[in-house]
Design goal:
Its EC number is 2.10.1.1. With 411 residues, the protein is an alpha/beta fold. The chain contains seven helices and 29 strands.
């Protein structure tokens, strides 16, 4: 196959893959806002009411007319008549007149006539029914105005936004308890190999338990997809063709683990290429781990072919899966991946011209955050279990020196 191991950079490979995908019109469904964390909005959400709905105090203090406090100081306080206390959760039953003040708590509703709140610590009581104001306040000071956060009919969340805790809280604050979100893309996961057995079975010599189906399923869920596992397929072309074909019909995307390396059992690329056009777009990426990765599109559906080595499969999936799921979800607001800066504790070698990803453990120290490399072999999954993130070594580097400031992608 002409594409086989024609190495591209990860960036070039991803661009080629995404460019071959058709535009999507994600299907929506209505769910409870309580269940919407991590889901993507299927349509714009507008405010049914202003927020706040009434003028509120942001501090404990006294509701006042700002003009009554002008010029107040410790040596020349303003004297105001205390006319009452504003209870929480109900509207004041009086109007504040000039020269008056009312005790108010954080979140309380301002009475008619009040236009500011003076903080409690900037007042003192001289006699029953009277307070001294020791500092002036301006109009609107320590007050949330009606609609200051959101005006009625404002678009508070556009379509194509992944919902986080702030969005969930904001929606609930507006009384929006149901909303339409994009249905989760279905991702079929196929694991192949005569030596691979289900996790619940006892091992015999030469066998390994299936890791990739489950680590990849978990990653799909984290990234907003719905994984569908298709079990373990033997290293036979007819079996692989049947399972991949069925998975392609039933899902929006396919991930195939194993069968993507050079050797007599390299069936994956050939079978995928038969599944539809344009077929295999990339077979070989200039990256470690994950050099023999396959990227394909068959009849509009993306297929990701991964090495059977658990670390290689998961590292490559961390790079290539999220952008494609974002495309399938119609995500318009793409927030940057969580990453941070740390100081490298050891020299890390690398081959020039190849992009390397090295698991690291993060350590807090008096000098700041340290990144300790975890040197590994690509079939040892617990090297990733012990890691907090991945250190990317650019293709134009021959390694990184101890003490270098590095960027770590959090796992």
């Amino acid at each position: 196959m002409s594409e086989f191991l024609t190495l591209l950079s990860p960036q070039e490979a991803l661009k080629r893959w995404l460019n071959a995908l058709p535009e999507v019109e994600p299907e929506g469904e209505e769910i409870s806002t309580l269940e919407a964390l991590g889901r993507v909005t299927a349509e714009p959400i507008r405010a049914p009411e202003p927020m706040p709905l009434f003028p509120r105090s942001t501090v404990d203090g006294y509701a006042v007319r700002a003009a009554d406090t002008f010029g107040a100081s410790d040596s020349l306080p303003a004297y105001l008549t205390l006319v009452g206390e504003i209870g929480m959760g109900r509207a004041p039953e009086f109007t504040l007149q000039p020269g008056q003040a009312a005790l108010i708590y954080t979140g309380g509703m301002l009475p008619e006539g009040a236009d500011a709140v003076v903080m409690l610590e900037h007042t003192q009581t001289t006699m029953p029914g009277e307070i001294e104001v020791l500092r002036p306040v301006g109009v609107g000071e320590n007050v949330l105005k009606v609609g200051e956060d959101v005006q009625i009919e404002d678009e508070v969340i556009p379509a194509g936004v992944r919902l986080r805790p702030p969005e969930i809280g904001g929606l609930m604050g507006l009384g929006i308890t149901k909303l339409r979100v994009v249905k989760k893309p279905r991702v079929g996961i196929v694991s192949s190999g005569d030596e691979v057995i289900p996790p619940e079975q006892p091992l015999r010599p030469g066998q390994v338990r299936d890791i990739n189906s489950y680590s990849l399923s978990a990653l799909v869920e984290v990234e907003g997809g719905l994984p569908q596992r298709y079990g373990i397929v033997p290293d036979r072309e007819d079996a692989l063709r049947e399972v991949i074909g069925r998975a392609l019909e039933e899902n929006d995307m396919i991930i195939v683990s194993a069968g993507s390396s050079i050797g007599t059992r390299d069936l994956t690329a050939r079978v995928i290429n038969e599944m539809g056009l344009p077929g295999v777009l990339v077979h070989g990426i200039n990256i470690r781990p994950g050099k023999p990765t396959i990227l394909a599109v068959c009849n509009g559906k993306p297929i990701l072919g991964l090495s059977g080595n658990p670390v290689s499969a998961l590292v490559v999936a961390q790079i290539f899966l999220p952008p494609v799921l974002e495309h399938l979800l119609g995500l318009t607001l793409k927030r940057p991946r969580a990453r941070l800066q740390a100081c490298l504790t050891l020299n890390v070698p690398s081959q020039a011209g190849r992009e390397d990803y090295v698991p690291v453990r993060l350590i807090e120290s008096a000098k700041g955050l340290l990144a300790e490399p975890i040197f590994y072999k690509s079939n040892l999954i617990f090297s990733l279990v012990r890691a907090d993130g991945l250190l990317r070594i650019p293709a134009d580097a021959t390694g990184l020196a101890s003490g270098a400031e590095v960027e770590v992608w959090l796992l």
